[in-house]
Structure formats: C-alpha cells, structure tokens
C-alpha cells in the first residue's frame, strides 16, 4: 500500500467578467475591466491510497468537477499541489495520462459517428497500446462489459447504458492504475446501474484499481465506496468512512417490535408518546414513538444506545415475535451534511 493520489492545500479561483446590465450589455461586458473572483476550490487536502474506492460527493456547484480537472491536469491549480503516484499531472500531463482513466458520464469520449471498435483503435493508437495488447484487453473488457452486441454500431445509435459501458471500456484500454468516474450511472435504469456497479466492484476488488467516484447517486456511494469525501462551497466538510458519517450525523434507527400476545411497558398508565426511557443495566436511552396492543415503535440514536441493549430490555416486557430494524436512509444523512 502507498499513496496513489496526494492533494495538498489545493485552491482554484476563476476570474469571470462582471456582466453589465442595460443597453448594449453584451458589448459593454466585452470591454469591462471588472472581474468577479469565484473560489471554486478552497484549501483542499486529502490522500487516496492504492486500491481505495473513494466517493467524492457534494451539491451542484460545490467544486467536484473543478477538483477532478486539477487531478487530471486539465486545469492548473491557483495554489497547492497534486501528485498522482508521485507525479504532478499538470507538469507531466502525458505521463500521468498513461496512469489515468477518466469517464464523464455526461459526455462521451468516443467518436459519435464511428463504430465502437473504431474508437478503440484510435484510442489505442493515442495511448500507444500495442495491437496484441489491445486485442487481449478488448477481449477481456468485451466479456466483462458485454460489448460484443454493439461492437459494429456507431456510438450515436447506442442506448445510454451501452454508451456508458463502451465509455468505461475506452477509459481502461491503456490499463490505467487510477480511474476517475464522474456520474457513471447517470440516467441509467436499475438493471444497467447494477451491471455497471458490479463491474466497478470487480475492477477495484480483483484488478486493484484505485477509483475516485463522483456522483449524485447515494446508492452508488453506499454500495461501492469504503470512504467518502464531502465537498461543500469548495471546502471539504467530511472525510472518512460511511459508517462514521452515519454515526456522526446520528439520525435515528427505527426498530419495530412485534410481541406475541400482550406486553407491558415499564411506564405509568396513559403515558404520552414519545416516551423517553433509560436502558436497564446499560448506558443509554431511547424513545418509544408509538405503542399499540401488540407492537412498539422505537427510535434510537446509535451513539445513544446499542440496539442489542434495547432488545435485551424490551425482551423483558413480553415475548418478542418479530423485529424489524430500519437504518436511516443514506440520502437523508447526506442532506444533513450538505
Ligand atoms: N471555467 C469556469 N469559470 C468560472 N467559474 C467556473 C468555471 N468552472 C466552474 N466554475 C464555478 O465553480 C464552482 C464549482 O463548479 P464545479 O463544476 O466544480 O461544481 P460541481 O461540484 O462539479 O457541480 P455539479 O455537481 O453541478 O457538477 C461553480 O460555482 C461554477 O460555476
């Protein structure tokens, strides 16, 4: 293991002319000397280890694409440093490009009017992939991504799911160590999303690729990433595991308990809901938010009480027939961070 991506004190400012209002606004804007500074990325630092699968998330306009562009060397940072496997991507763009695969879900890197296979020939040439090597890799990718069915089809005729698979294969043709994915499942149906996710899991798990995934799809993040970085107004507001993020935000877990026959709450008659209770024989508290003749609905924060301790206590009120536990929705958690 070692650092694959190192980012230190990264900044990006954009200078955009102030748009004039009123008559001849367009022409006057052209001659304006007034500029507005937009700080799209402010002092971001992080390290991604070899073989990591990291999610990079944040609301629209937060600075995700700007960061990715600096990581790939397309944009020059206003301040700070980027190293991809020890190399500065802006100074050594070609060298770093050989190590990187990039997929922008919203924009294909394939040639619109050419058959898919022709795009691969051009890309293999650009990245100096030897013909035998290209054939071997396309055979492998073709199998994993099921490319054969549209091999001869012009890119413009592909379905969105096919186009995305074709683009992902294109990004891997030169066998890069690192993959940047920007919205790789956008607009896809459930089945197409699932096949792309499975492929990405394989790519990371079996082929050891380091992956940075940008997406608005929280299911992608939850199913694929070990770590997430949250960017908001150009600054990192969270960096760590999804588990820790859940704990930190502390949305309640909801536990529904069904009793066999009757049960007895440890409270006075006619107690009002929600009913706050302390755990017996352990640290912590939880709330009963509903109670009917055979069911109770409990809300508990993970930090405040362990589910097992709650169940042990509730087991004393009656005979438990069924337990249903609902973790807070990851989407809701993320909204709290944004
Ligand atoms: N070339 C540019 N010139 C001026 N401002 C820019 C430029 N590129 C991006 N910005 C601004 O920088 C901010 C960050 O944009 P960026 O595209 O990085 O956001 P994002 O997190 O990728 O958003 P989204 O989820 O909508 O794709 C925005 O306010 C955007 O308008």
UniProtKB/TrEMBL annotation:
Q: Which Pfam families match?
A: ABC_tran
Give UniProt keywords alphabetically: ATP-binding, Nucleotide-binding, Transport
Question: What GO molecular functions are on record for this protein?
Answer: ATP binding
* Residue ranges occupied by any ABC transporter domain in the UniProt entry: 25-258
Q: Which SMART domains match?
A: AAA
* PROSITE patterns according to UniProt: ABC_TRANSPORTER_1, ABC_TRANSPORTER_2
**Highest taxon listed in the record's lineage:** Bacteria
UniProt-recorded name of the protein: ABC transporter ATP-binding protein
Species this protein is from:
Paenibacillus cookii
């Amino acid at each position: 293991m070692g650092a694959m991506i190192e980012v230190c004190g990264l900044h990006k400012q954009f200078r955009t002319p102030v748009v004039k209002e009123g008559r001849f606004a367009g022409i006057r804007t052209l001659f304006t000397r007034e500029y507005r500074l937009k700080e799209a990325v402010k002092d971001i630092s992080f390290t991604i280890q070899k073989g990591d699968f990291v999610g990079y998330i944040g609301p629209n306009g937060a600075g995700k694409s700007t960061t990715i562009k600096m990581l790939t060397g397309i944009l020059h940072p206003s301040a700070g440093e980027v190293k991809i496997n020890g190399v500065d991507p802006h100074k050594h763009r070609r060298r770093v490009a050989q190590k990187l695969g990039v997929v922008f879900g919203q924009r294909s890197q394939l040639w619109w009017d050419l058959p898919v296979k022709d795009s691969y020939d051009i890309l293999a040439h650009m990245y100096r992939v030897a013909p035998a090597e290209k054939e071997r890799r396309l055979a492998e990718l073709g199998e994993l991504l099921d490319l054969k069915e549209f091999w001869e089809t012009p890119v413009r005729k592909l379905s969105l799911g096919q186009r995305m698979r074709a683009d992902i294969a294109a990004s891997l043709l030169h066998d890069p160590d690192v993959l940047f994915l920007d919205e790789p499942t956008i607009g896809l149906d459930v089945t197409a999303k699932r096949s792309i996710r499975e492929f990405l899991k394989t790519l990371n798990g079996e082929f050891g690729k380091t992956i940075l995934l940008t997406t608005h799809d929280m299911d992608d993040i939850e199913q694929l990433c070990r770590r997430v970085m949250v960017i908001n107004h150009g600054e990192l507001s969270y960096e760590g595991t999804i588990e820790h993020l859940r704990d930190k935000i502390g949305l309640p877990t909801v536990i529904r308990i069904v009793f066999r026959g009757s049960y007895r709450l440890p409270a006075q008659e006619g107690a009002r809901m929600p009913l706050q209770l302390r755990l017996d024989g352990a640290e912590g508290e939880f709330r009963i938010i509903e109670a009917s003749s055979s069911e109770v609905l409990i809300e508990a924060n993970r930090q405040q009480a362990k589910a097992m301790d709650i169940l042990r206590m509730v087991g004393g009120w009656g005979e438990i027939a069924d337990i249903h536990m609902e973790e807070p929705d990851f989407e809701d958690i993320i909204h709290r961070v944004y």
